[in-house]
Design a protein that fits this description.
It is built from eleven helices and eleven strands. The chain is an alpha/beta fold. The chain folds into two domains: about 210 residues, 3-Layer(aba) Sandwich (Rossmann fold), CATH 3.40.50; about 120 residues, 2-Layer Sandwich (Gyrase A, domain 2).
């Protein structure tokens, strides 16, 4: 006998229109872009950092939990590193705890889940993500080293992600340290006896891409003695010019348009902007809601009036502001445009900082 078909009133039987598909896609892309932009901006605040990975199930008192506390405290206290984790329990908690006790930055990149992940109490600065993949990119962005403690699928996933990036030279030769000889040795033996051995799927020199140790001094030395990452964050802290302290001239005054080499030099100091044929600067600013977007526009307008510069901007999808800069009098870019871009970035930061302050007072 044929089963009776049931109708779920919560699921529409009508196919989505093309306009609805586009709207859903645009909203999702806006959220993804916002997470990446906010994540990169968030992490560039820290001049140097080390990322800790490991099981969320590891309890206080476990030898690896306590080792993570000691190591992160030393990184913060002795060497001034921010310690970045996923912000949850276990090894993540241990890493943040040590950094906190060492008087440093205990950074948590957390994930929003249906059953809320609890941020550990030692986090001093937090950024929450909706998508796992954008959070994963941020956990692997620009750290001076990666320390892996015993963990499950998530820890192994992060380990192979970084290992693959370094092996294929998509990332610099970043220190990768596996803490826990008893835990990691069987995996290393598998690399040697199976991947290198009969199958030849990796090269013998790939074994030099990481180290396995329980020696805490060796962990510290390996990362501290490595060269700083040549990243957006490093440029921001070490090579920042005084663009944000300069003032624009009214863009009607013109001047001489900049050549490509000069534009490229200025681009290091205005994170997130795109250079369009050396004639225009463009950036998408994506905010949490319409109110934040309007606050940003008002601040940007006040700065533009003060500086005598005229950015072109438009508001889309209730929370995305598109901004374009050019010096119209010369149909190209002058230093004034880069000065204005730096000040618009400051306006965005003012809005985001205001959100964080409001979050803390709730």
């Amino acid at each position: 006998m044929e089963k009776e078909k049931t109708h779920n009133p919560n699921v529409s039987s009508e196919p989505l229109t093309l306009a609805e598909v586009r709207d859903m896609s645009n909203r999702r892309l806006s959220l993804i872009m916002r997470e990446f932009r906010q994540g990169f901006e968030f992490l560039t605040k820290y001049e140097k950092s080390v990322t800790f990975f490991g099981s969320a199930r590891t309890k206080p008192g476990d030898k690896y939990y306590e080792k993570a506390v000691r190591l992160s405290k030393r990184f913060a206290e002795e060497h001034g590193y921010a310690v970045v984790t996923g912000g949850g329990g276990g090894i993540m908690e241990a890493g943040n705890k040590g950094a906190n006790e060492g008087g440093g930055h205990a950074v948590g990149l957390t994930i929003s889940l249906p059953h809320e992940q609890v941020t550990n109490k030692f986090v001093t600065d937090e950024l929450a993500f909706h998508y796992f993949f954008s959070r994963k990119v941020m956990l692997s962005f620009a750290a001076e080293g990666y320390v892996y403690f015993p963990g499950g699928f998530g820890t192994l996933d992060e380990f192979f992600e970084i290992l693959t990036l370094v092996q294929t030279k998509k990332a610099e030769n970043i220190p990768i340290v596996l803490v826990g000889v008893d835990f990691w040795t069987p995996l290393v033996d598998y690399f040697k006896n199976t991947l290198i051995g009969p199958y030849s799927t990796i090269s013998p020199e790939d074994m030099d891409l990481f180290i396995v140790t329980d020696d805490e001094d060796e962990v510290i030395k390996t990362i501290v003695n490595s060269k700083p990452r040549n990243s957006v964050r490093y440029n921001r802290h070490r090579h920042k010019t005084s663009l944000d302290t300069k003032h624009c001239k009214p863009c009607e005054e013109g001047g001489t348009p900049l050549e490509k080499e000069a534009c490229d030099k200025y681009m290091d100091d205005i994170s997130g902007w795109d250079l369009d044929e050396n004639k225009r600067l463009h950036k998408y600013f994506i905010f949490k809601n319409f109110e934040e977007a309007m606050d940003f526009i008002e601040i940007m307008a006040d700065v533009a009036d003060k500086e005598g510069h005229h950015p072109d901007f438009s508001l889309h999808d209730w929370n995305r502001v598109d901004v374009t800069l050019t010096t119209h009098a010369v149909s190209g870019l002058t230093e004034n445009d880069f000065i204005m871009a730096a000040k618009i970035n400051d306006a965005e930061e003012e809005v985001l900082n205001s959100r964080q302050q409001n979050k803390r007072t709730i």
